[in-house]
Amino acid sequence: MPIGYILTVGTFTGIFMILTVSLNVLTGYAKQVSLGHAAFFAIGAYASAILTVKFGLSFWAALPCVVGITTLVGVFLGLPSLRVSHDFLVLSTIGLNFIVGSVFRYFSFFGGSMGIVGIPMPEFFGHPLGTAGFFGLTLLFVILTILTSFYFSRTWGRLAMEAFGEDEVAAKAMGINVAKFKIYAFAISSAYAGIAGALWAHYVGSVFPDNFGFDRSIDILAMLVLGGMGTIRGAVFGALVLQMLPEGLRVIQNYRMLVSGGILALMILFQPMGLLGRGSFLVKGFERLRGRLVSHEAEDMP
Amino acid sequence: MSLLVTEGLTKDFGGLRAVDGVNLVVGEGEIHGIIGPNGAGKTTVFNLITGYLKPTRGKIHFRGRRIDGLEPHRVVSLGIARTFQIVRPFTDLSVLQNVLVAWGHRNYYGLGPFKPFGPAKRKALEILEFVGLAERAYVGAAALPIGLQRRLEIARAIALEPKLVLLDEPAAGLTEEEITRLKELVLRIVASGMTVALVEHRMTFVMDICQLITVLDRGKVIAEGTPSQVASDPEVIEAYLGAGEGEGDA
Ligand SMILES: Nc1ncnc2c1ncn2[C@@H]1O[C@H](COP(=O)(O)OP(=O)(O)O)[C@@H](O)[C@H]1O
Ligand SMILES: [Mg+2]
Fold first, then answer.
1. CB B43 near ligand 1, within 6 Å
2. pLDDT tens track for B44-55
3. Distance (Å, whole) CA A256 – CA A220
């Protein structure tokens, strides 16, 4: 296997790890199930593409703007969650994919169906990154995402999200401004997804509306659910498995939607906590091995 | 000094007047009982005070400030905590984490949400100690029997550091022994500087520990006074004997 191929697979896997860890904040902690995460991914990719190609910014100068834009978009697109219950939220997040896709397809500013091409590789001390360099850059962002997300998992904000995610009425009685924290969850989740989008755009070199459809959102949710909602290790593991599997088993590639959709449905039915989630059979077995029934760690929080 | 005052508090649900012109005064340091048959409007009064419902008419003052119409989390920040008639523990969280969520109330503003909750664990354990749940701190809240879930609700209410604690049927579903411990806990809560208003539909519990009792029937206050005054009030006796036909138009 050529090293370039391995690095490319590693880069894409890393990008999806950022996406699943970011979705974990929204869906794992705050229990806002989103089937529209690819929309935030897309907005990050397009924002970085436009800022670098049309406005001539460097990758590095564009990145803080991208994060700012996706954070704001997260706030805005999170607003419907204040008005609808969990079931309807799922429907409205499905809608996000199509709204964002349509905007990119039908407005020439976003390149229409021709997309945006010629997105430059990030430079490092004046030299464009190669495949290995970009893999290193992605790895750096994966580590930053995991570390910051791990820090967040031990904060009051995470606790508030867990609380209203389970019971909004009780959470309000604990002094939690549920509306504000829902928006926080969308904003934080979207900010990370924006970074993933920027990385994707600059690695691939072009963005088209079809790159970020509904099926992508299903992929991302399937990864998180497979690994285990509510845990960072689950998010990372799910992305690893579902991103690598098609590389090992070429036939799967033609049936990606079937695999993602099938895994999502089967896991929700039979192992809703995922393979490495809290209280999953693997984790329970592991804890029994360690002779420890209740964990005090924040990561295993609830 | 009166801590909480309602004036003409009224709530309609469609054609049903669940709370009808209730004037309630809860003084500082009091244990104030609100009793009345099922459906009298007791829980609705609590929901109005804590911001879960907006009054159709009437005002609510807390420490001299209008609070009707405020969001529940704002009411909490002003110093009113509540428990629920049907317990609502966060079942995905441990007992300790349930209390932490409440103790975090001051950190849910500004940059607070981005600060770690770890250092607060000691304080949360102290609160669990206070209500007698410390040895269950690391158990999942769902695993607690109902009596202990009620105590967990009280622990969370205390963790909000309120001036006023509203307990909605705290004795429901408890054994005699648990009720004795609950009385003792309520007395300790008041001794530590909080005021308690509690709802019960059974008289005995309230008679034992409350200084003042307000009796509701069909949304209206039909009697008010000390336990002995209330217990000898003919209208109260009638309401409680279920002789509901007699018009309670007091
Ligand atoms: N949210 C609501 N919508 C409609 N009716 C309600 C609602 N909450 C309470 N009620 C009605 O208001 C009346 C008083 O209820 P409640 O305050 O729960 O009584 P209590 O707590 O004294 O048993 C009852 O007739 C009840 O059915
Ligand atoms: Mg009630």
1. yes
2. 999 999 999 999
3. 12
C-alpha dihedral sign at A178, A182, A183, A185: positive
Q: What ipTM, to 2 d.p.?
A: 0.92
In a domain, B250, yes or no: no
Overall size of chain B counted in residues: 250
> Among all residues of chain B, which has the CA nearest to that of A297?
B118
Q: Which of A11, A25, A258, A247 is nearest to A151 (CA)?
A: A25
Residues A11 and A42 in one domain: yes
Structurally, chain A folds into a number of domains equal to 2
Both tokens of residue B227?
Answer: 């336990």
> How many residues does the structure list for chain A?
302
CATH number at residue B64: 3.40.50.300
Q: Quick check: A298 contacting B, CB < 8 Å?
A: yes
- Measured in Å, residue B6 CA sits from the centre of ligand 1 at 18
Tokens coding A234:
């689950």
What pLDDT band is residue B241 in, cutting at 50, 70 and 90?
low
The count of CB pairs under 8 A between chains A and B is: 107
- With a 6 Å cutoff on the Cβ, whether B214 touches ligand 1 is no
Residue A199 structural domain: 3-269
Q: Do residue A175 and residue A277 come from a single domain? A: no
Q: Is residue B198 part of a domain?
A: yes
